[in-house]
Batch of 2 targets.
Target 1
Amino acid sequence: MTLPDQTAFTAALLDPAQPVPDGIVNPDGSPARRRFDVYRNNVVAGLVEALQAAYPTVRRIVGEKFFDAMAAVYVRAHPPTDPLMILYGAELPAFLDGFPPAASLPYLPDVARLEYARRQAYHAPDAATIQPERLGAVPPEELDRAVLGLHPSLRIVASDHPVLSIWRFNNEEGAAKPEPGAEAVLICRPDLSLSMRAIPLDAPAFIADLQSGATLGAAAAAASTRDAGFDLGLHLGGLLSSNCLVSVTIEGVDDHDPPG
Amino acid sequence: MTTHTHQTGLPPKPGVGYKPQHIEAILDDPGPVAWLEIHAENYMGGGGVPHAQMRALSERFPISCHGVGLSIGGNGPLDRDHLDRLRHLVEWLKPAMFSEHLAWSTHETGFLNDLLPLPYTSRTAQHVADHIDEVQTVLGRQMLLENPSVYVAFAESTMSETDFLRDVAQRSGCGLLLDVNNVYVSATNQHYDPDAYLRDFPMHLVGEIHLGGHDAEEDDRGDPLLIDTHDREVIDPVWALYETVIARHGAMPTLIEWDSDIPDWPVLEGEARRADAILSGVSLAAE
């Protein structure tokens, strides 16, 4: 005796045009059409519900009817790859980039990117932060070789649209109407509360270099190559005011923490 | 097969499915609610608020950890990455209980996010028991397996659901989670007598009971088709079945499940109070 045919069951589940698999029956032995549809509906409705919870701002912007119809298309094209539903929907921003019915809202994919980044930050590992003054204790001659450990929840979203203003306008009472223009957002959850703030438009590349482990010297040099007017002090101050520093190490030095 | 002692760390009192919107009410005055159940997968992130809440709540309440994503009935091997995440959760949370479903939810194409049915044959019983054995070995503890809500039957089934569950439990050493609402839903959908099902259920293996609400529709012939939705109150016929079970077998840890259209705390607490009245009635009668 073999195991049941879950391949045929799965295929029929995701494609309503397919007949009910052989051997799936009503109590009287007849093919269980309506009953099989319960599973078909459950799968799509459950995934759509997961996206509703994951992208509330996108849903508010496009309306419930549009969102739910769009989500039903998305869940068939991008079913979850594993059971961790708290992070389901990662490809929705890219999906929206290429979804013609949403083309009149060019900022929508970036709002989705912001919502997904918030969710990643919400579920990121915990880590104890240290006072930004610890960086000040690094001897000046070693600053170039300093590697900043940043909080694992730190996320950056850069957009050609006022993505943070749009998010606030849709979520916060009395928030100003968004003005056209690019925005970059830093999201961090150093303790349990998640914060978002606008950062300079040339900050994301610099912060990404630091996140990937570049020394302060290397990240600053790369930033100066992109823009000769790059102000390291300004950017560091902005970054550290988000309380997202968890460690300072000096490359090539065994003793990891600087004095002080 | 690994042997495991059948035990439950949950008190024989009402519990509820934990929802974050209820945390203040629960910490303030949980009423008759003596324990909480969580869906394991919702606490498999890295940390943050979900973990902090669970650390705080687990100091005051026994926690039952209920998996919805292991796909124990899946044809393919268990997802070892997922099993590792579960082991990690069980290690830090130290729940009083771990349970999962007699169902499958993962196929080669990915995770289907639903509890899908299995034919009841000796071949599938061995396959399910092998998966349970693997879970129990990785977790180092016994798990409970829950009877499903089923909508369809399989022409190839050769055993009743109660015989199938008994067989799986014997082969794997697992305990059982009796969902009385699922019994009512499946019995209505599959045209059998829920009370006969309950009389046939291996009650000595039960470590926890679930109660929840369901939706009532019709199939293509106009026959009742009940759908397990966990989005409303438990109906009276299900309470009556539950009362019969408790009267016959004594008080057992009993969960009110409410996972969709989640009500304000007083409504959920009211359901727990109703379970408490039945559970207390038995313990009073026994004194």
Target 2
Amino acid sequence: MANPKSTRLVQTYKHTSPGIACRFDPTGNYLFVSSQDNAIQRWNLGDGKMVLFQGHKSWVRGIAFHPAAKTMYSGDYAGKILAWPIDAAKPQPAKIIDAHQGWVRAVAVSPDGSLLASAGNDHLVKLWSLPEGKLSREFAGHDCHVYNVCFHPDGKTLVSADHKGAVHAWDLASGKIVKSFDASVLAKYDTTFRATIGGIRSMTFNADGSLLACAGITGVTNAFAGIGNPIVLLFDYQSGKKIQSLVPSASFRGTAWGVEFHPEGFIIGVGGGQGGALWYWKANQNKAFHTVKLPNVARDLSLHRDGKRLAIPFYDNCARVYAMS
Amino acid sequence: MKCTYACNSAEHEVSRRQFLAGSASAALGAMGFSGMVTPAAAKQLEKSQKRVLLIWLAGGVSQLETWDPKPGTPTGGPFQAIPTSVPGVHISELLPHTAKQMHRMALIRGINTRENNHAKGAIIMHTGRPEDPRTNYPHLGSAMAKLLGPEDSPLPGYIHVTPRGAAGFNKKDAGFLGPKYASITLADGKPPENLLRPKELSVQSDLKRNQLREKLNRRFGQRRRTADTEIYTQSYEQALQLMARHRIFDNTHESPKYLDLYGRHDFGQHCLLARRMLEAGVTFVKVTHSNYDTHHENFNFHIEQMGEFDKTFATLLDDLADRGMLDSTLVIVMSEFGRTPRINQRFGRDHWGTAWSIALAGCGIKGGAVAGKTNAHGTAVVDRQVNGGHLFHTYFRALGLNSKRNYYINQQPIPMADPKAEAIEEILA
């Protein structure tokens, strides 16, 4: 059993560049961390050794793994997706997909491993057949940058979310939008700044697909400095209705950059802005039941397959692993 | 220092005639060419009338996301550099359309104004000097309205198109030159209020009303003439002439093609309006694009803002060139400062006056020239460091003006540009 209230730092992995995103691999042996030097670090959780994956020409925010093939897919802000053998001693990209015009902001692999989905600044969501990496289908329906994408656990539906808070569920067979969710509180057009601030910064389903979580920033009062409040919206997938707005229990300014459902039913989020924080929620309570103050600005979140460890990449060049025990 | 330019001193009468480089068009212009030349020649003279378009990227655009990219470095951010129409010159990938215009442009990459405050940085960039409590220096627009503008121009010499805020008359911008050269703000690109004669007022009644006002003004002016009373009178006369030219403020007279090319967003329409006003004879137009003060999410915001700027700006240069106006129009793209090479914890960049860039195009500018260089991470200028004074000398010289002359205010000489600085010769045509 995980015990959120016993959360403690168990490992710090220090690099030379601020972290952007992180994921534990499906085997649970490695932590992959992308950073502002365009590289991806592979940290061996056993011996603490690090290997750099170099090949991207821009920052990587999207990282996903094939469930069985020991392949990592990483999407970058140059519009490319690179496929990597995760175990390689001297990793080289096995495939480079010219995926989007503009940034690739998120990638996801279908539960059966046959499809890769990507979301980009060209307003498109794309499906790629695996392992070939050939374009299988395009979904056009967003009118702005698409920030996130994930598969429903049933493998029949894909959900994408954009800069303005529009969230669409696409039927993979027909390519049509089957339902939409309103997450527009995670975006605001700032009339002084004359631009939109926000977007869905993290998105995930719970294990049975009944709940969808979308994380970001709301209540922005100053777009120049990013003054707003982190929030995670919980949607009932079947009805499409919002059932909860998860917020910190104490004042915190910044963005919720990562969200995960724990198999035991609670929800975990991290935020960064003016400092960093880790929050634990129950789906039926909007305020966090436990908060861990973090040593720096958190930028993403990954839950280990053992359900007891969390990884967070930070601005201070470190990725830290926390144990909920 | 209060302007009493109604003193009629010879010194005060220094104007464009004395500063222009002596071209025939300048001589004819000074004589008032209307009615003295053929329509074709007049059109040619109008085109050669020197003008300035300032595009003000409010809040401080990032030099790293525009004119001086450093891809693949710790300060470079996620964007790539792309080649331009000038071999060897690269700019940010956020400016693909502008990159095709580089042969018409020059970049100044070595600016160090040592100022990270919005208001103080804006003063340096608008006046060519740091704030000086002893002297209220005029904005570039006011200076150009005086030095380049026809004496009897029916239009304001300095018009500022803003994306929001209040319309108005900005006496402060003119500094010691006096309110005659103040700027007029067109808020949201809308024409001055009450530009058209109210329907309930007949032409005849309006005429009589103005005749009475002129009579009273003349009587008052004989005994109490000051700069303020003069501009008061002049503003009425200018307003009448503006009313007759109200169409220049209305983009709906443009073809849909131009409306689309410039972009239907505010910045696009404001730049189209700027071109219309420059073409109609306004000497100095400033268009503000907002906002670049990206302490948070610098990269996302620059995608949005540069996405608007890029195509519009490239269209504007093409349009000015197609109309034969680019050779006589100096185009300046600048901010109050640049942004820090250091990327902060919110994916933002902060204020940075130490090593940054601006871009110029058009009149007097050597296309494709690049002056100044920053180090590999963009943290310091390593070659050809310049400040606001150098920029002012450069603008003046590009426009054919002698930047080393003085204004004479109350018989006191005041250098037009900082005498400690020089023009950046290598970017001048």
